[in-house]
Hints:
Number of strands: 2
Strand order of the largest sheet: 1-2
Oligomer: single chain
Strand content: under 5%
Radius of gyration: 22 Å
Order of helices and strands: HHHHHHHHHHEEHHHHH
Structural class: mainly alpha
Distance between the termini: 46 Å
Shape: globular
Amino acid sequence: MNAASRRDFLKLPALAAVGGGWLAGASRALAVEEVLPKHVTPETIAAVVKGLDYLAAQQADDGSWITGGGQMYPVAMTGLAGTALLAHGDSPTRGKYSRSVQGAVEFLARCGTESGLITGPGQDGGIPMHGHGFALLFLACVYGMITKEGLRRQVQTVIRKAVTLTSQGQSGAGGWTYTPGSGDEGSVTVTQVQALRAAQNAGFLVPRSVIEEAVKYLDKCRTPEGGIQYSLSSATGPRLPISAAAVATLYNAGQFDGPIATDCLKYVWDQFRAVEGFSKGGGHDYYAHLYASQGFYMAGDEYWDEYFPKTRDQLLAMQQSDGSWNGDGIGQVYGTAIAAVILQLPFKFLPVFQR
């Protein structure tokens, strides 16, 4: 480098500072454009950050989410909101939302009970297994990031007991329902299987037979159309939201090419393509998209390239001025957490959602 070039090079930091940061800003913009996953736009990033800012602002002092629709289901909402923050790449000690992640860990750790059920005093509206599944999923995903030794041991105990509770709460048919050991239906079954997969990823022992029986349960619930009905005893035809959840769950269970997963994916894909707009689930639209997005992402670019750009644009158009999404009549925390998870899937920060 000659003297003139060297002088020009050394001027660059000063130019950036004096010029209002334009040079640094341009460099950051260029860097962002270079690293964004396919179909993720700067507008997507802005919407996600606005949504996560909303979630962080709604968190209670005890680390839970009890506003924005979370009053009845604080354990489930905390698990979902915490997972959305993890999907941003944050941890209890790193990132813009680290304090919120840490608060969620501490709250859910306190919700661990002697029986293994992760629940609060209100039992999440009397149907604690949904919340238990979402909480176990979050704690298993964040476990390896916890640096405080005492908290790490506490979470380890909660996860181990929770895995045992889920395993022992499986019905004779192979599924789960809203309270442990009281029956089975599809939506709770999928939350348990995904939570168990996350626990297994984190190094916890999950009985193989439990997963195998759960896969058999979904197979028993398969309809001639290829979808999954509400429960084994409810022969009312396939339910699209539960079928979408089953696809993601079967992939989590390693059933990528089996006839159940293949038929179910085809059913869900055909149903999604047949209906324009975001509404797919008959009142359970966010739930349907939460799992369908995972299934389509794991199924490969043939599905993801068609699904995500449209859904991305629909979600961005539906975001409210405060950054939230109001999901399925349950509330803003639920809708915002799910929208943020969907929009952040391509960043691959959570192994349980990766291809």
